[in-house]
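re the bet — no i am not wrong, look at it urself. input seq straight from the record:
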Amino acid sequence: MQAIESTNLENKLIALKERVSLSDSLIVAYSGGVDSALLASVAHQVLGNKSLAVIAKSPSITDIEINKAISLSKTVGFSCHIIKTQEIERPEYKANQPNRCYFCKDTLYQELSKLASKLNYKTVANGTNHDDLGDYRPGIKAASDHGVISPLAEVGLTKTDIRALSRDMNLPTWDKPAQACLASRVPYGTQISSKLLNRIGAAEQVLRDLGFDQLRVRDHNTVARIELPISEFDKLLTPSIKQEITKRLKSLGYKYITIDIEGFRSGSMNE
């Protein structure tokens, strides 16, 4: 069974390289996450200097994550370019309705398309994987609207596949926890602002500083709802750690610090 799975994975990697090669020159929408890191790495292998990873700097992602992504590109050896996006200025994005992601990705792909035209790259690609196609992802429509391709999804690569390939290729992202933009921590209908996103980013960094990795801090105005794997609850409730989290999150303006007893789960705001 393991040999069959290995062969299937190898075939998907071959298909991915073939799909990338059809693009001749490629800009990869890069975030430093497991999906886009694999795509950027493969694109570099196949196309060399005809591929370019581009990361968008905005209030939706912390500077720490931006710096990690840049560091990764240097470690692996692919080119990385930084642009600034202003989705936070769009009323549709700030309104934070369930289709918020569309306007964020629409802004991103507009900027990437402009850059591709300016630098003479033929195609823009994203890191959407096959699993994403079955999830609620308004950003997929934005990709379609702008002619952005999704090579990982096209060749049937799942998140599990991508982690396995990343491990085989010695990419340090192979076991990186899934990340999402900071706006995903805010209940739909609550207005998005740079100040709010900065607070969420700072709150999550408090927990990372204390050794937690897979986490979300959901922002409910005066309430910080912490999501962690249930296996880490005991650590969180260690008196010294609990006191430190309480003190530092209250200093950010939260009045109540809570734990979600259902534990960590991506996309819980869509429930």
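see?? DSSP finds eleven helices and seven strands in the chain. told u. also The domain at 2-175 is CATH 3.40.50.620 (Rossmann fold). so pay up
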